[in-house]
């Protein structure tokens, strides 16, 4: 873990949870590249916007808790905005928010047990930073006194996709904070309509502000198994390049439970701070439509989109021309390999489509055509019987693993940049418009020694072309 800068009293450390798949924003958001890694509102991704909130406030270096398969994406996106000292904590499996938060708290408490954690999801939008920081000040004041503070978002409509918090009596020692009377599950529409009329109720933002030692104490009180398993996983962690990898043998035994159920709804020291800072969890395409800039007809158009006689629609294309005409209240999302059309009031049901696609073993349910790797990315262009054509992009200075295949041969054609190819111990320089053949079973490696990106076309041929037919003999990224 990098050294934490103690720039203020108390030390406040952003803890960013980046474990969700965002399936309600399918087909853009998929488990291979979920919504927090996409620039859905500005030219920065949701993860970058989240990390910059802590950076702009001058807080401690962030701790990111994430899926191990996303570690290189996260590191690269943080470096792109100038954050190169974050601690990236890798979960060996998804065990929900309580174990994830416990892991961050254990890690931080090793050096600063009284540091205050500002726990937040990586994929929410906030439009009013000044109001956010004013609200954070109140939450920090409460956390400094041993409370676990959460932000209660003032509702502006009957929302059935969020849980609710009922505030109780005011906290006498911190102006603007209130005891929590109760937490409520996601209501039906009739209940939500009644709740939005009552100023005591707010949306549960899922953000928490608390001291590391307080969180650990409450987790040990209510979920001692989480405390034990995660504590051991942190103690037995291994440093992997720039990452901290939790010990899987013990972490995987931790109960799968959210921090709300594990602690927030059971502790006597939870408080809520009512908030108005333009928050949205962007949990559906309709939510994204609501917070995006619209044209005079109420439409949001993103990408190569043309609209005619269309009102109050969200239309996005990440590639091909998309024309929409004569419709109202629709969501149309087009990617390279999928199209999704829904009425806006059915936006919450996109997850049902993803479930059906998953049950049908459709790879589009979880994976994009473009797959990111620590060295760059690849994407399939054509796939047929016993052959596949891919585009491979290698960033300057990067190198792929030394590997071999048992079921396919490969032919590489360089179309931009210069490649250094290792083939059975022989090193070859392959320039633009040149090619190299890699027979089945040969040991090979690809590197980009240049200052510009390397692009090549790969033609695979063989009876089996799956990505699991890769035997890695050496890898600078320590992948298996």
Description of the molecule:
The strands form 6 sheets. A 6-stranded antiparallel β-sheet has the order 18-19-20-27-22-25, with no helix packed on it. Strands 6-9-7-8-12 form a 5-stranded mixed barrel. The protein has a 4-stranded mixed β-sheet with strand order 14-15-16-17. It has helices at 46-56, 71-80, 97-109, 129-144, 189-195, 212-222, 224-235, 248-251, 259-264, 285-291, 350-359; strands at residues 12-18, 63-67, 87-91, 116-121, 125-126, 148-153, 164-170, 178-184, 201-211, 238-240, 243-245, 270-275, 279-280, 300-308, 314-325, 330-334, 339-343, 370-373, 376-384, 387-394, 402-404, 409-416, 419-423, 426-430, 435-438, 444-447, 454-461, 471-474. By secondary structure, the chain is α+β, with helices and mostly antiparallel strands. It folds into 3 domains: 12-280, Spore Coat Polysaccharide Biosynthesis Protein SpsA, Chain A (Alpha-Beta Complex), CATH 3.90.550; 295-359, no CATH class; 370-474, Jelly Rolls (Sandwich), CATH 2.60.120.10. It is built from 11 helices and 28 strands. Strand 23 (419-423) and strand 24 form a beta hairpin. Residues 364-475 form the Mannose-6-phosphate isomerase type II C-terminal domain.
């Amino acid at each position: 873990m990098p050294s934490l800068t103690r720039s203020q009293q108390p030390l406040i450390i952003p803890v960013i949870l980046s474990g969700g798949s965002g399936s309600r924003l399918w087909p853009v958001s998929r488990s291979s590249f979920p919504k927090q890694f996409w620039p859905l509102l500005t030219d920065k991704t949701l993860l970058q916007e989240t990390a910059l909130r802590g950076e702009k406030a001058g807080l401690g270096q962030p701790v990111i808790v994430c899926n191990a398969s996303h570690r290189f994406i996260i590191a690269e996106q943080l470096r792109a905005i100038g954050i190169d000292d974050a601690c990236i904590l890798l979960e060996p499996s998804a065990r929900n928010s309580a174990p994830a938060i416990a892991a961050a708290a254990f890690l931080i408490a090793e050096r600063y047990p009284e540091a205050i954690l500002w726990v937040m999801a990586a994929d929410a939008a906030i439009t009013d930073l000044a109001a956010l920081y004013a609200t954070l000040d109140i939450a920090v004041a409460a956390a400094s006194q041993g409370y676990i503070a959460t932000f209660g978002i003032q509702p502006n409509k009957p929302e059935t996709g969020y849980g609710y918090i009922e505030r109780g009596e005011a906290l006498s020692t911190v102006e603007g904070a209130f005891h929590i009377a109760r937490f409520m599950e996601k209501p039906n529409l009739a209940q939500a309509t009644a709740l939005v009329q009552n100023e005591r109720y707010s949306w549960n933002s899922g953000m928490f502000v608390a001291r590391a030692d307080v969180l650990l104490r409450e987790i040990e009180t209510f979920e001692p198994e989480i405390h034990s398993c995660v504590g051991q996983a942190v103690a037995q962690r291994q440093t992997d390049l720039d990452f901290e990898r939790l010990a899987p043998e013990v972490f995987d035994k931790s109960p799968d439970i959210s921090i709300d159920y594990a602690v927030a709804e059971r502790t006597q020291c939870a408080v809520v701070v009512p908030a108005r800072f333009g928050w949205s969890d962007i949990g559906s395409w309709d939510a994204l439509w609501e917070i995006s800039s619209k044209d005079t007809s109420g439409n949001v158009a993103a990408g190569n989109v043309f609209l005619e006689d269309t009102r109050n629609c969200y239309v996005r294309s990440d590639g091909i021309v998309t024309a929409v005409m004569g419709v109202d209240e629709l969501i149309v999302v087009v990617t390279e390999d999928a199209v999704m059309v829904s009425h806006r009031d059915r936006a919450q049901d996109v997850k049902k489509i993803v479930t059906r696609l998953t049950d049908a073993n459709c790879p589009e349910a979880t994976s994009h055509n473009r797959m990111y790797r620590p060295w760059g990315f690849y994407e399939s262009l054509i796939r047929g019987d016993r052959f596949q054509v891919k585009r491979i992009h290698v960033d300057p200075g990067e190198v792929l693993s030394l590997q071999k295949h048992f079921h396919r041969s490969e032919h590489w054609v360089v179309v931009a940049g210069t490649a250094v190819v290792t083939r059975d111990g022989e090193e070859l320089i392959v320039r633009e418009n040149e090619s190299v053949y890699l027979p089945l079973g040969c040991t090979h490696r690809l590197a980009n020694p240049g200052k510009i990106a390397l692009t090549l076309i790969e033609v695979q041929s063989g009876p089996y072309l799956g990505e699991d037919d890769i035997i890695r003999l050496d890898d600078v990224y320590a992948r298996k």
